[in-house]
């Protein structure tokens, strides 16, 4: 409500109040859930489009409330970032994902790449690299099979700082992907300086792929070309139809992830799915 009369002001204040209260409550509940192990990870398989083989999976956080309700990450990651809680949660995610990768290796799913989302608050934390090294040491994961996903918009926030951290991450042997690519405004030269391994085409551009006739106009095509020209691997997220998968492959996209192949799965579902798709 705008300032057209006292009544409106009052309503505005009250709305603001409830919104703040709501956020405080959400944060308290999240902290509580984190302390009581009600956060867990799902894993969404990633596929090599050239041969249909399984490459690995992306770890995605889930929050199950005491009443069994699932809270989607889009509704709590922002507040976790804002409050700084994401640093601890992110460390937990990373370690858990690494341990899962190791147990998959032990179960015979070798060379399984684990992709983990990292937020800017984690990335700029002074102990981030120590934390990474500690996770590698404690879990014994092969760093070449660990990938960090950072969003394009986050990478753009503090370009030089982010470039510096990426270089150090890569020195550890860990690979880096730019997530939600195409939604930010990174320039070609910046992308080159970022020195990442993979571009992940944002779901919105994949969703826009509908028929063979319009592939030349679609942004996905441009992003794939850009990635290929820079010598990067390109992965598409949010692939839901056979047509999208086929056209992405034709456009030169290397890898894909989406409901067409599998939804995000909990750890036992993932193992079952992998067993069914073993080649
Ligand atoms: P994201 O990294 O872009 O992850 C992709 C999202 O697309 C996931 O939503 C996934 O479930 C969803 N998705 C996968 N395939 C399809 C598809 O075919 N169609 C559609 N419509 N959606 C698909 P989710 O799991 O709800 O996660 C939302 C966002 O929350 C993620 O977006 C990521 O930004 C954030 N997030 C999730 N886990 C973590 C985490 O551990 N740490 C941090 N910092 N952020 C996380
Ligand atoms: Ca991601
Ligand atoms: Ca994404
Ligand atoms: Ca996203």
TrEMBL record:
<feature type="domain" description="EAL">
    <location>
        <begin position="23"/>
        <end position="278"/>
    </location>
</feature>
<protein>
    <submittedName>
        <fullName>EAL domain-containing protein</fullName>
    </submittedName>
</protein>
């Amino acid at each position: 409500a705008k300032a057209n009369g006292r009544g409106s002001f009052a309503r505005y204040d009250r709305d603001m109040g409830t919104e703040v209260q709501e956020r405080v409550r959400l944060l308290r509940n999240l902290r509580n859930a984190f302390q009581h192990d009600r956060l867990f990870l799902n894993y969404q398989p990633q596929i090599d489009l050239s041969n249909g083989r399984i490459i690995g999976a992306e770890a995605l956080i889930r929050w199950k409330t005491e009443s069994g309700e699932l809270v989607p990450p889009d509704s709590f990651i922002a507040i976790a970032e804002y409050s700084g809680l994401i640093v601890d949660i992110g460390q937990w995610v990373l370690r858990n994902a690494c341990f899962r990768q190791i147990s998959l290796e032990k179960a015979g799913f070798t060379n399984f790449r684990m992709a983990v989302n990292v937020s800017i608050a984690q990335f700029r934390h002074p102990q981030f690299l120590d934390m990474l090294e500690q996770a590698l040491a404690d879990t014994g994961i092969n760093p070449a099979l660990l990938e960090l996903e950072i969003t394009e918009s986050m990478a753009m926030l503090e370009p030089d700082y982010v470039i510096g951290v990426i270089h150090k991450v890569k020195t550890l042997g860990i690979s880096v992907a730019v997530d939600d690519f195409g939604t930010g405004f990174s320039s070609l030269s910046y992308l080159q300086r970022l020195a990442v391994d993979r571009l992940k085409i944002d779901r919105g551009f994949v969703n826009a792929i509908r028929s063979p006739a319009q592939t030349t106009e679609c942004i996905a095509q441009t992003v794939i070309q850009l990635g290929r020209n820079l010598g990067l691997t390109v992965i598409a997220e949010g692939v839901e139809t056979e047509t999208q998968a086929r056209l992405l492959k034709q456009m030169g996209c290397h890898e894909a992830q989406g409901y067409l192949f599998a939804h995000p799965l909990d750890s036992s579902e993932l193992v079952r799915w992998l067993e069914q798709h073993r080649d």
